[in-house]
Write a structure and sequence with these properties.
alpha+beta, globular, 3 helices, 107 residues, four-stranded antiparallel β-sheet
Length: 107
């Protein structure tokens, strides 16, 4: 499966399972951008790639987790994160890279 198609498939599955309609469109765009970048990086093993979502204190925190090297999204992807996400970042711990973003609940 090609990187964009894989990203769309995982994103749609996660959005269907979590049922966060108030942030769904923004999350869909940002998850797709991050996953396309992570899956398109030749140094990111494919799979495993995990999507995690947490809700707390009126925020949704979405994370894409993989074993690839830490890499800050570039170009249009970082612009989308800057303009849409309330916060975002990249971290590395225990051999895993986590690219995450937060969206405030609009309710």
């Amino acid at each position: 499966m090609a990187a964009p198609e894989t990203a769309r498939h995982i994103t749609e599955r996660e959005l269907d399972e979590t049922r966060f309609p108030e942030t769904a469109e923004s999350a869909r765009l940002l998850l797709s951008e991050i996953m396309s970048e992570r899956l398109g990086d030749p140094e990111t093993p494919e799979p495993p790639l995990t999507v995690d979502v947490r809700r707390s204190a009126g925020r949704h925190r979405w994370s894409v987790i993989d074993r690839g090297r830490p890499q800050v999204p570039a170009g249009m992807r970082s612009t989308a994160l800057d303009q849409i996400a309330d916060a975002w970042g990249v971290s590395r711990r225990a051999g895993l890279t986590r690219t995450w973003f937060e969206l405030r609940s609009r309710r």
